[in-house]
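Justification of computing resources. Each target in the renewal requires a structure prediction run like the one illustrated here; the chain below, 230 residues long, is used simply to show the kind of job we budget for.
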Amino acid sequence: MDKGLILIVEDEPRIAEILEAYLAREGFRTVTAASGDLALSHHAMLSPDLVLLDVHIPRLDGFEVLARIRQEANTPVIMVTALAEDIDRLSGLRLGADDYVVKPFNPQEVVARVNAVLRRSRAAGASRTLRFAPVEVDLDAHVAFVDAGTSRQPLALTLSEFRIVAYMIRRPTHAFGRADILDACLPENDALAKTVDTHVANLRRKFETAGVPGLFQAVRGVGYRFAVPK
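Resulting structure tokens:
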């Protein structure tokens, strides 16, 4: 079961590995960043469902990363810290964080907090349906549809294909690199870039058969975009 993508921002490799393992066991995909600038890059490119954000990281601390995320998106963020002065700042959650945890922590508690924050954010009205006419993606039902005007035709997609569609339709005219698609959609596999080419070719064929040609166009030197800007 794919419960979403979690961005773990942590510069201590052992802690990041533990969080990855516990979240994967719960059904989450994960991607990690060991610095603030890389965290912002991953957030912009991968659109994670939630960010686990350590306060004390190199090249932009967690508070600055949180502030910049909040300028662009409402992605749920759980802050992680070990210092009392940070806890004082976070206790009121005045900075836009959704929750916080204190080191040393129980990884199971962190997973429970992640689940709770995601439930709250989705219940508060976060859209679980993505649309780019005539394509609709239902994230809860894990189904992609093509709107034929009088009916909606479900597409028979593999899990990897569904992940790619759900990822790219969020920014339909953006040119995604193959490496970005691999990191966001196939992180548990030792996949090569050519794996993305195969999945995209299959997706293009399935959408064309459903009456929607022209999607998943190649961008020379970059990768693919879902649709051409109009």
